[in-house]
């Protein structure tokens, strides 16, 4: 766990980073960072901190009855977002560089003229970006009291409906506070996995209704403190002109212990979907041994031309419906970037790979192996040659108070050393939430055969390390997990 000194040091690091980027932090922003730091310290002391999940997605069923807002202003409609510019929250989430949005992005962005006011606080839908599979909405809240704590809504209800009145199921993350500027506080929310009883639904033209109740914050013990009581309802029709490209596959594959036909690949600007049809169902229950042997077959892996990968094992936004011998199934990965078909080299599913752009030449990779941590990691040859794998077996982990074996991937370049990352294999099976509670610098990878695998990334500590390794860390190490495998 981070100690008091490290926590307080983080406050200075955030301020320093802002200064380096030419951003002036307001007093309120500094207070918020300080309050968050002190809250973490208090949480350590009382050991009552809330669970913070690596994946904060929650699957929601049909929404509860909507609560009527006191004041509703505006009629559902859109304006061309190009004229208004792209919201910074959208740019940040999807890693879109500053400048005029491309035509592809403009086709996905709309600005619903929807606003509601209650108890002196107004909530509006500022901007929405989405394709036929998911959308990301930016909400602006005005006239909240200035407080250092991070605001949230006490309850959120969402309904997604079709023209025929059908109500769909979905996956939602948020609304989450993204920042504040004077009297305006920004929240964002991501909605995906729209389906009707497991059948995939095209999101374009569907009605979206949010009902938000009470705004406040969580204290150090996780108790919600109401700052503004009220109900706010936002209702609009989602519109997108995003292009969808479909590639027929028609391959026979194995999915765990079932048999299926991989029908096609659908590529939209924010996701990749694989559609399949079960031809022979598997068993209702599998042993851990069987799962460990077969789980690779149900992964979706998207290989990009820039060398990065997306792997369904490590994606936050994965939606699926397995279907059966009568109903088609699908698996979908949602991305935090905008893509085009030409960006994708291949898609792997059912342990088979479909190449979409055969002319793209990827960097050759070398598999680095650790017997102690029972794993391999594939890195580009020019990066792998810098690394020495340093291993330890059966040593005590102070945070987990359990035996572990680990492998530290130590780099050396021009006389400068730095640990790129460390893979831990810890005795006992822990959830992602438990791992984060034990050590919040670790990221959960997997649990196998009574062991939990985690990764701990190295941090640049001085200018020499920054000079030699910054580009490598940003380009390769930040995307290392999709190239990680447990030795079977």
What does this molecule look like?
This protein is α+β, with helices and mostly antiparallel strands and 488 residues long. It has four domains: 43 residues; 180 residues, Immunoglobulin-like (Sandwich); 111 residues, no CATH class; 122 residues. It has nine helices and 29 strands. Strands 1, 2, 3, 4, 5, 6, 7, 8, 9, 10, 11 and 12 form a twelve-stranded antiparallel sheet that branches. The chain has a five-stranded antiparallel sheet with strand order 13-14-15-19-18, with no helix packed on it. It has a five-stranded antiparallel sheet with strand order 24-25-26-28-27. A hairpin with a 4-residue loop joins strand 16 and strand 17. Helix 1 runs antiparallel to helix 2. The protein is globular and about 60 Å long. The N terminus is likely disordered.
Uncertain regions spanning at least 5 consecutive residues:
1-32, 34-84
Q: How many DSSP H or I helices?
A: 9
Structural class: alpha+beta
For the record, the count of structural domains works out to: 4
Gyration radius, rounded: 24 Å
Quaternary state reads single chain
Count of extended strands:
29
Strand proportion, as a percent range, falls in over 45%
In helices, the fraction of residues equals 10-25%
CATH homologous superfamily identity of the largest domain: bacillus anthracis domain
Major pleated sheet:
12 strands, antiparallel
Query: What top-tier CATH class of the largest domain fits best?
Result: Mainly Beta
User: What general outline do the C-alpha atoms trace?
Assistant: globular
- What CATH architecture of the largest domain do you see? Sandwich
CATH topology of the largest domain: Immunoglobulin-like
Average pLDDT works out at 84
N-to-C span? 31 Å
